[in-house]
Design goal:
homodimer, 131 residues, mainly alpha, Arc Repressor Mutant, subunit A
Chain lengths: 131, 131
């Protein structure tokens, strides 16, 4: 599905009882792209069970640029995974948190991230063996 | 960690008892990139519990190019997640399967993919609400 056309052409009930990631045209591909984007994984994990301001997220997630963090948050907000709350104060104060759907997504992504962090020594060892 | 220097500078036992994805320089970032790359997720799932030839993988994974599939398989092979076996026959016959480490990785990735496929209607509904 192209980014600009958010509405599927056939009725949802017909087209999308369940997504199919192996199908090139399935809109699930776009969600996968957002959730597993370079920063999407880390944003979801950073927001697990917590609310953060933009600047806090930038500090937690090493190496992310302002532009990429903003883009990632917007993707996740559009997909209904992240809540953005702008408080009407001076200076402006914007808070991000996970929606219930985002909390589910974060759990799956965190399980994957935990696995990578735990198994990193084994993975690096097989990289050396193969080099 | 840069792609070219696979060996960490400090001893593994010191530097990498466990990875830290939030740290910009941690080599776990590179593994995350490979596993969650556009095609990495789908290759790991396609190989779950099965051996496939290159051409079979191309047919299963809708939309992947020959070049991107080859690149993805090479990443996953270098990380010790995928086994590549070239049988010495004419015409050439190359088979891909998961290593035990790759099987673990595939389970995590499959849980994420299942979640996306199952929750796709909810996600699309929140996209429409927000549009």
């Amino acid at each position: 599905m192209k980014k600009k056309s958010k509405l599927p052409r056939d009725p949802l009930s017909v087209q999308l009882r369940r997504g199919d990631l192996m199908a090139a045209q399935c809109p699930s591909r776009e969600i996968l792209k957002h959730m597993t984007s370079r920063w999407g994984v880390l944003v979801l994990i950073a927001l697990q069970g917590r609310t953060h301001r933009f600047g806090e997220l930038r500090r937690i997630i090493g190496g992310v640029s302002e532009r990429m963090l903003a883009q990632t948050l917007q993707w996740l907000e559009n997909d209904g995974l992240v809540n953005r709350v702008a408080l009407n104060v001076v200076p402006p104060h914007v808070e991000y948190s996970l929606t219930p759907l985002g909390q589910e997504a974060a759990e799956k992504v965190a399980a994957l991230a935990d696995w990578i962090e735990t198994r990193l020594p084994s993975i690096l060892a097989s990289q050396r063996d193969g080099a």
